[in-house]
UniProtKB/TrEMBL annotation:
Name the UniProt record assigns to this protein: small monomeric GTPase
E.C. designation(s): 3.6.5.2
Pfam families: Ras
Cofactors named for this entry: Mg(2+)
Keywords: GTP-binding, Hydrolase, Lipoprotein, Magnesium, Metal-binding, Nucleotide-binding, Prenylation, Protein transport, Transport
Organism: Hippocampus comes
Protein backbone atom coordinates (compact mmCIF):
# COMPACT_ATOMS: atom_id res chain seq x y z
CA UNK A 1 0.00 0.00 0.00
CA UNK A 2 1.66 3.17 -1.05
CA UNK A 3 0.77 6.44 0.59
CA UNK A 4 -1.13 9.17 -1.19
CA UNK A 5 0.83 12.15 -2.43
CA UNK A 6 -0.61 15.52 -1.53
CA UNK A 7 -1.88 17.67 -4.37
CA UNK A 8 -0.18 21.00 -4.74
CA UNK A 9 -2.42 24.03 -4.38
CA UNK A 10 -2.10 27.10 -6.56
CA UNK A 11 0.54 29.64 -5.76
CA UNK A 12 -1.69 32.44 -4.55
CA UNK A 13 -5.26 33.27 -3.77
CA UNK A 14 -4.81 37.00 -4.25
CA UNK A 15 -5.41 37.03 -7.94
CA UNK A 16 -7.38 39.97 -9.21
CA UNK A 17 -7.29 38.48 -12.68
CA UNK A 18 -8.28 35.00 -11.56
CA UNK A 19 -11.23 33.18 -12.95
CA UNK A 20 -14.48 33.61 -11.07
CA UNK A 21 -15.67 30.33 -12.53
CA UNK A 22 -14.93 28.45 -9.35
CA UNK A 23 -12.53 25.99 -10.91
CA UNK A 24 -9.48 27.44 -9.21
CA UNK A 25 -7.00 25.06 -7.71
CA UNK A 26 -7.73 22.27 -10.11
CA UNK A 27 -10.64 20.08 -10.87
CA UNK A 28 -13.46 22.22 -9.60
CA UNK A 29 -12.99 21.20 -6.01
CA UNK A 30 -13.36 17.53 -6.61
CA UNK A 31 -9.66 16.73 -6.59
CA UNK A 32 -9.36 16.14 -2.85
CA UNK A 33 -9.23 12.53 -1.77
CA UNK A 34 -10.81 13.22 1.57
CA UNK A 35 -12.72 10.70 3.57
CA UNK A 36 -16.21 11.64 4.50
CA UNK A 37 -16.23 12.38 8.20
CA UNK A 38 -17.16 9.23 9.99
CA UNK A 39 -15.86 6.98 7.23
CA UNK A 40 -14.43 3.65 8.22
CA UNK A 41 -10.68 3.51 8.82
CA UNK A 42 -10.67 0.44 6.61
CA UNK A 43 -11.91 2.40 3.61
CA UNK A 44 -8.49 2.39 1.99
CA UNK A 45 -7.14 5.86 2.72
CA UNK A 46 -5.65 5.16 6.11
CA UNK A 47 -2.30 3.44 6.42
CA UNK A 48 -1.24 3.11 10.06
CA UNK A 49 1.94 1.13 9.27
CA UNK A 50 3.31 3.39 6.62
CA UNK A 51 6.81 3.74 5.21
CA UNK A 52 9.03 6.61 6.24
CA UNK A 53 8.06 10.10 5.25
CA UNK A 54 9.35 11.51 1.98
CA UNK A 55 11.70 14.47 2.09
CA UNK A 56 9.08 16.59 0.34
CA UNK A 57 6.83 16.01 3.37
CA UNK A 58 3.86 15.81 1.08
CA UNK A 59 2.69 12.27 1.69
CA UNK A 60 -0.44 11.85 3.74
CA UNK A 61 -2.73 9.27 5.27
CA UNK A 62 -6.07 11.03 5.27
CA UNK A 63 -7.34 14.20 3.63
CA UNK A 64 -10.05 16.70 4.40
CA UNK A 65 -11.54 19.73 2.74
CA UNK A 66 -11.69 22.89 4.84
CA UNK A 67 -13.25 26.18 3.70
CA UNK A 68 -12.57 29.72 4.84
CA UNK A 69 -15.71 31.85 4.70
CA UNK A 70 -16.89 35.24 5.91
CA UNK A 71 -17.34 38.80 4.66
CA UNK A 72 -14.90 40.42 2.29
CA UNK A 73 -11.91 41.91 4.09
CA UNK A 74 -12.11 39.88 7.31
CA UNK A 75 -8.72 38.30 6.57
CA UNK A 76 -9.43 34.86 5.09
CA UNK A 77 -6.62 35.00 2.54
CA UNK A 78 -4.18 36.43 5.08
CA UNK A 79 -5.07 33.69 7.58
CA UNK A 80 -4.39 31.01 4.99
CA UNK A 81 -1.10 32.59 3.92
CA UNK A 82 -0.04 32.90 7.58
CA UNK A 83 -0.84 29.23 8.17
CA UNK A 84 0.70 27.94 4.96
CA UNK A 85 3.73 30.21 4.60
CA UNK A 86 4.12 31.75 8.06
CA UNK A 87 3.98 35.26 6.60
CA UNK A 88 1.62 38.22 6.74
CA UNK A 89 0.41 39.85 3.55
CA UNK A 90 0.78 43.49 4.47
CA UNK A 91 0.03 46.32 2.07
CA UNK A 92 -2.96 47.06 -0.07
CA UNK A 93 -5.94 44.76 0.12
CA UNK A 94 -6.61 42.69 -3.01
CA UNK A 95 -9.95 40.99 -2.78
CA UNK A 96 -10.08 37.32 -3.76
CA UNK A 97 -11.84 36.57 -7.02
CA UNK A 98 -13.82 33.33 -7.07
CA UNK A 99 -12.19 30.54 -5.10
CA UNK A 100 -8.82 28.82 -4.77
CA UNK A 101 -7.09 26.30 -2.54
CA UNK A 102 -3.78 25.51 -0.86
CA UNK A 103 -2.75 22.20 0.72
CA UNK A 104 -1.01 21.63 3.99
CA UNK A 105 -0.04 18.31 5.51
CA UNK A 106 -0.04 18.23 9.30
CA UNK A 107 1.12 15.57 11.69
CA UNK A 108 -1.72 14.77 14.07
CA UNK A 109 -1.03 12.06 16.67
CA UNK A 110 1.45 10.43 14.27
CA UNK A 111 -1.03 10.48 11.39
CA UNK A 112 -0.36 12.61 8.31
CA UNK A 113 -3.47 14.69 7.73
CA UNK A 114 -3.75 16.70 4.55
CA UNK A 115 -5.95 19.76 4.74
CA UNK A 116 -7.07 21.06 1.39
CA UNK A 117 -7.96 24.61 2.37
CA UNK A 118 -10.32 26.55 0.15
CA UNK A 119 -10.10 30.33 0.28
CA UNK A 120 -13.40 31.81 -0.84
CA UNK A 121 -14.26 35.31 -2.02
CA UNK A 122 -16.27 37.19 0.57
CA UNK A 123 -17.88 39.50 -1.95
CA UNK A 124 -21.59 38.96 -2.45
CA UNK A 125 -21.26 38.57 -6.21
CA UNK A 126 -19.28 35.33 -5.79
CA UNK A 127 -21.71 33.75 -3.32
CA UNK A 128 -23.20 31.32 -5.83
CA UNK A 129 -19.70 30.07 -6.67
CA UNK A 130 -18.90 29.31 -3.03
CA UNK A 131 -22.24 27.59 -2.43
CA UNK A 132 -21.26 24.93 -4.92
CA UNK A 133 -18.23 24.05 -2.80
CA UNK A 134 -20.01 23.79 0.55
CA UNK A 135 -21.50 20.39 -0.14
CA UNK A 136 -18.36 18.29 0.23
CA UNK A 137 -16.59 20.43 2.83
CA UNK A 138 -15.63 18.62 6.02
CA UNK A 139 -15.00 21.80 8.01
CA UNK A 140 -15.55 25.54 7.75
CA UNK A 141 -13.68 28.32 9.46
CA UNK A 142 -16.10 31.23 9.63
CA UNK A 143 -14.35 34.57 10.14
CA UNK A 144 -15.42 38.00 11.22
CA UNK A 145 -13.21 41.04 11.77
CA UNK A 146 -13.11 42.37 15.36
CA UNK A 147 -12.68 45.90 13.94
CA UNK A 148 -15.76 45.61 11.70
CA UNK A 149 -19.14 45.35 13.43
CA UNK A 150 -21.02 44.59 10.20
CA UNK A 151 -18.85 41.52 9.61
CA UNK A 152 -19.83 40.30 13.09
CA UNK A 153 -23.51 41.08 12.61
CA UNK A 154 -23.46 39.08 9.38
CA UNK A 155 -22.31 35.91 11.16
CA UNK A 156 -25.90 34.79 11.85
CA UNK A 157 -26.69 34.99 8.14
CA UNK A 158 -23.47 33.13 7.32
CA UNK A 159 -24.35 30.35 9.75
CA UNK A 160 -27.85 30.02 8.29
CA UNK A 161 -26.36 29.77 4.82
CA UNK A 162 -23.71 27.28 5.94
CA UNK A 163 -26.24 24.95 7.53
CA UNK A 164 -28.40 25.17 4.43
CA UNK A 165 -25.66 24.13 1.99
CA UNK A 166 -23.22 21.90 3.92
CA UNK A 167 -23.29 18.29 5.10
CA UNK A 168 -25.04 17.80 8.41
CA UNK A 169 -21.93 16.81 10.33
CA UNK A 170 -19.68 19.60 9.02
CA UNK A 171 -17.29 21.04 11.62
CA UNK A 172 -17.78 24.80 12.02
CA UNK A 173 -15.46 27.07 13.98
CA UNK A 174 -16.02 30.79 14.53
CA UNK A 175 -12.93 33.01 14.39
CA UNK A 176 -12.72 36.68 15.39
CA UNK A 177 -9.76 37.81 13.29
CA UNK A 178 -7.52 40.92 13.55
CA UNK A 179 -7.27 40.49 17.32
CA UNK A 180 -4.01 42.45 17.15
CA UNK A 181 -5.93 45.64 16.30
CA UNK A 182 -6.52 46.81 19.86
CA UNK A 183 -7.20 50.44 19.00
CA UNK A 184 -9.72 49.74 16.25
CA UNK A 185 -11.53 46.90 17.98
CA UNK A 186 -15.32 47.24 18.07
CA UNK A 187 -16.33 43.66 18.84
CA UNK A 188 -15.40 42.36 22.31
CA UNK A 189 -14.10 38.85 22.73
CA UNK A 190 -17.04 38.11 25.05
CA UNK A 191 -19.49 38.96 22.24
CA UNK A 192 -17.84 36.43 19.96
CA UNK A 193 -17.88 33.83 22.74
CA UNK A 194 -21.57 34.47 23.39
CA UNK A 195 -22.57 34.12 19.76
CA UNK A 196 -20.53 30.95 19.36
CA UNK A 197 -22.15 29.48 22.46
CA UNK A 198 -25.59 30.32 21.12
CA UNK A 199 -24.87 28.34 17.95
CA UNK A 200 -22.90 25.62 19.73
CA UNK A 201 -19.70 26.16 17.73
CA UNK A 202 -16.14 26.48 19.01
CA UNK A 203 -14.63 29.97 19.02
CA UNK A 204 -11.33 31.74 19.25
CA UNK A 205 -9.81 35.05 18.30
CA UNK A 206 -7.00 35.01 15.76
CA UNK A 207 -4.57 37.36 14.08
CA UNK A 208 -3.10 36.73 10.68
CA UNK A 209 -0.79 39.65 11.40
CA UNK A 210 0.74 38.34 14.65
CA UNK A 211 -0.01 34.67 14.08
CA UNK A 212 -2.15 34.45 17.24
CA UNK A 213 -4.02 31.12 17.34
CA UNK A 214 -3.67 30.54 13.59
CA UNK A 215 -1.90 27.19 13.91
CA UNK A 216 -4.24 26.22 16.75
CA UNK A 217 -7.39 26.85 14.69
CA UNK A 218 -6.29 24.53 11.89
CA UNK A 219 -4.81 21.95 14.26
CA UNK A 220 -8.04 21.79 16.26
CA UNK A 221 -10.08 21.19 13.12
CA UNK A 222 -7.61 18.58 11.83
CA UNK A 223 -7.70 16.77 15.20
CA UNK A 224 -11.49 16.72 15.24
CA UNK A 225 -11.70 15.34 11.70
CA UNK A 226 -8.95 12.80 12.30
CA UNK A 227 -10.59 11.55 15.51
CA UNK A 228 -13.95 11.21 13.81
CA UNK A 229 -12.43 9.15 11.06
CA UNK A 230 -10.04 6.94 13.00
CA UNK A 231 -11.67 6.72 16.43
CA UNK A 232 -11.55 3.30 18.10
CA UNK A 233 -14.99 2.12 19.24
CA UNK A 234 -14.11 2.47 22.94
CA UNK A 235 -12.21 5.75 22.56
CA UNK A 236 -14.01 8.83 23.97
CA UNK A 237 -15.19 11.49 21.52
CA UNK A 238 -12.72 14.30 20.87
CA UNK A 239 -13.92 17.48 22.62
CA UNK A 240 -13.01 20.27 20.24
CA UNK A 241 -13.96 23.27 22.39
CA UNK A 242 -12.30 21.70 25.43
CA UNK A 243 -9.10 21.15 23.45
CA UNK A 244 -9.13 24.74 22.18
CA UNK A 245 -9.73 26.19 25.66
CA UNK A 246 -7.00 24.04 27.18
CA UNK A 247 -4.47 24.92 24.49
CA UNK A 248 -5.23 28.62 24.85
CA UNK A 249 -4.85 28.41 28.63
CA UNK A 250 -1.54 26.58 28.28
CA UNK A 251 -0.26 29.23 25.88
CA UNK A 252 -1.49 32.06 28.09
CA UNK A 253 -4.15 32.88 25.51
CA UNK A 254 -1.46 34.26 23.15
CA UNK A 255 -0.30 31.44 21.05
CA UNK A 256 1.27 32.16 17.72
N1 LIG B 1 -4.39 44.15 11.54
C1 LIG B 1 -4.71 43.07 10.83
N2 LIG B 1 -5.02 43.19 9.52
C2 LIG B 1 -5.36 42.07 8.85
C3 LIG B 1 -5.38 40.80 9.45
N3 LIG B 1 -5.76 39.89 8.54
C4 LIG B 1 -5.96 40.58 7.40
N4 LIG B 1 -5.72 41.89 7.58
C5 LIG B 1 -5.85 42.94 6.56
O1 LIG B 1 -7.21 42.96 6.14
C6 LIG B 1 -7.29 43.17 4.76
C7 LIG B 1 -8.11 42.09 4.10
O2 LIG B 1 -7.45 40.85 4.22
P1 LIG B 1 -7.75 39.61 3.23
O3 LIG B 1 -7.13 38.41 3.84
O4 LIG B 1 -7.38 39.92 1.85
O5 LIG B 1 -9.34 39.55 3.36
P2 LIG B 1 -10.33 38.45 2.75
O6 LIG B 1 -11.24 37.99 3.84
O7 LIG B 1 -9.55 37.40 2.05
O8 LIG B 1 -11.18 39.31 1.71
P3 LIG B 1 -11.93 38.77 0.37
O9 LIG B 1 -10.90 38.04 -0.43
O10 LIG B 1 -12.44 39.99 -0.33
O11 LIG B 1 -13.05 37.89 0.81
C8 LIG B 1 -5.86 43.28 4.22
O12 LIG B 1 -5.52 44.65 4.09
C9 LIG B 1 -5.03 42.63 5.31
O13 LIG B 1 -3.73 43.17 5.39
C10 LIG B 1 -5.02 40.70 10.84
O14 LIG B 1 -5.01 39.65 11.48
N5 LIG B 1 -4.71 41.88 11.47
MG1 LIG C 1 -9.37 36.84 0.13
Amino acid sequence: MSRKKALKGKGTTKNPKGSPSGGGGGGGGRTGKGLAAGASPTSGLVYPSRPSISSSGEFYDIAFKVMLVGDSGVGKTCLLVRFKDGAFLAGSFISTVGIDFRNKVMSIDAVKVKLQIWDTAGQERFRSVTHAYYRDAHALLLLYDVTNKASFDNIRAWLTEIYEYTQQDVVVMLLGNKADSNHDRVVKREEGEKLAKEFGVPFMETSARSGLNVELAFTAVAKELKHRTMKEPDEPKFQLQEYVSKEMRTAGCCRS
